[in-house]
Amino acid sequence: MANVVSEGAAVSGTRTAPERAEAALDTLTAAPATPDRLRRVLEQALVLAGAAFVGVYTPGDDPSQLLLAESAGLPRTLYGLRDGYPATGGSPVAETHRTGHPVRLGPAELADCPEARRTPSPDFSVAVLPLGPAGAGCLLAVTERPGGFGPDDRACLELIARAVAVPVPAALAGDGGELPPDAFSLAMDSGRVEVGDDILRLFGLGRDAFDGRVETLLGRTVPEDLPALMSVVEADHMSIGDRELEFRILQPSGPPTWLRLRGRLLPGGEGRAARLVGTVADASTLRSDVTDVARVQRLAAALATAGTVKDVGKAVVAALRGPLQADRIALAELENDRLVVTVLDPPGPEAWPELWRSEWRTEWPDAPVRAMPTLAAALREGRARIWPAGSPLEPALAEVGPGGLAVLPLPAGGRMAGACLIGWDRPHDFGADERALLTACAGLTGQALLRAHAFDAEHELVGMLQRTLLPRRLPRLPGAVAVARYLPTTAGLEVGGDWYDVIPLADHHVALVIGDVQGHNAGAATLMGQMRTALRAYAAEGHAPDVVVAHANRLLLEMETDLFATCTYVDVDIEQGTAWVVRAGHLQPVLRHPDGTTEIVRAEGGPPLGVLGQADFPMTPLRLLPGTVIALTTDGLVESPDADIDVGMDRFAAELAAADPAHLGLAADALLTGARRADDVALLLMRYDGMAVRPLRESWTVWRVPEAVRHARRFTRRTLRGWDVPQDTLDTALLVVSELVTNALVHTDGQVRLDMSLINHRLRLAVADSSPRSPVKPPSIGWEATGGRGILLVEAVSAAWGTLPVSGGKQVWADLALAERPPRGSAPDG
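^ protein-serine/threonine phosphatase, sequence as received from the core. Prediction below:
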């Protein structure tokens, strides 16, 4: 290893970090003033001082407020920082501004701050430096390095604070001066924009033809580039600081033209809206001026939005491989003693060493660290290492970068999260400041990996919670098929309140339920689970649809929650092909008729659940023909910020008409294609096919008269003879009816009803009464007992028996199996 050249040797004799900062700042401040000079000054803190965020706070139009004038690095919201602070308040920003003295806070002090927030790193430190005498504002820097800012880091920050030039050119600030030809100023509240003549020329507009609306300019953008551009010009997605991106505009003929936008958001003051100011230029005429600082800034911006480990790897590859002209990059995580690779570029096995190929596991390889002792040493030291071409390394590393290899340990949260390997095939000339670039990138990547793991873990927890609260599978239905889909929102990690359910009921009824609880948090998810359980319980009790929803409304009111819920409940009678719809503030059902036409059901509705105690929930009848599809959804599928919900419902109905009802799962997937995912989406479809064999049914109201049992037996005999039930089964049925009716008359009050049904050689006899108490089977009967034998007799002669809750009471039922008889006219066996 004597010939191994570390990065320290490669840059020995070079200037210290403060000396490099001083030279860079002298160059920046000596150049003519540009709109992005302040940002470029602040970016020096990212590379040379190890800052993760740096910002400048200065007095605004109202001297009592300190406003964030410019920032660089990760989003301020990760550290609980505001856009502004009261100048007389107790914040570190206000204290440094008033006194002119620096303030440094470590993790312990920050934990006691009222605005302290949990961050992925336990080593989260802040330094606040004055921008001159008291009252001139301050520079705030954040680092996640263990131990905070070191002496060299603080020296760099002091140089940067002295070099900060806060005032914005009056023309760009929109203070009434004339805009430069390539500059613009956009009012974020109204969308009115002032632009220079060069910008109008680039967009192909004359001064007289331009109406001052930003939409006019956006309309000339290539559609694929519009979302990225909108993310810059929409205030809801921005924080104070620099914005830079390239986009294309359409031309009357020929290919689109690339433009580069550079700007920053200026905070609004009292009575003044925030504004986006900057420049737009023809990207094809701009020289390549991507500095190391700019690379770090772009990587920081990309990592700030990287949600998963894969996203982190893609951001690192995009930020480093091309600019450094590297031939391969590997990002690997350290798990125990193995290096588990999460991103390889190029991805093919043939581009990587033999050891890596032998350890390939499906998509990526994982290799033992002990097989690469040089890498293991670099991870222990925790410092970036650079080996030029010809360095004697073990084959597993030498083949990664025969022309030069850089290994970046990725520290995060006081431990080593992994490593990034960058290799070149041809001899690479490592610049003196390249170590600073790589070190800064390693720190940002390590912290991003830690955040991504937290994101992945929370995302998995959220998904598990959602899967637990929703039905694991839908039941099989006689004469119908149901499918459901659920898509969680991609706007965040919090679980939503959308739910669906399919509830089989007695007599071949089924309840279709879909609903949405207000909010996207654990409280909404918990309430969603409670409401789904409550509706299922009320439905199983046999209540009418309007009573089920009314009971759920009363329950939600009694829970004393601030949340409300919407719901659509459809009770379908599969035997008769009818349904009843009840709505509680939710979307209408949509029907797809057998001829392919669709109909948005105009069902009268009641208020959302949990709003009014005395609320009516009217029922709307439906008639279903075989082949009809009932579609229920939540507003996440049909509502969007740029279209009315009625437009979304019409679109949903049109897409349902185009779907194939024969493959209901594929139809559901097609309906979800293109969902905006800004909100949860639940979708429930049921195709009504009709029953191949409809049951025979009859009912008899049992009057409380002395001859009640005899009348019930007579009705049973007459009905079963009409159904051609064999005599032996008829005798058994008369015994069961006698016992069940007698029990109901003796042990309950109120109305008693006898129901009989016959389907598929199975006869069901059921007696309903007004008592919720189920009959109790006695454990034993003595010779002297005068009662209690009825249920034992029913159990002895029945294939099965049981009880079901019905509205206000119960139903005791018994099933008798009928022997299948040969068709009339056929000869018996034997």
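The chain has a mean pLDDT of 78.
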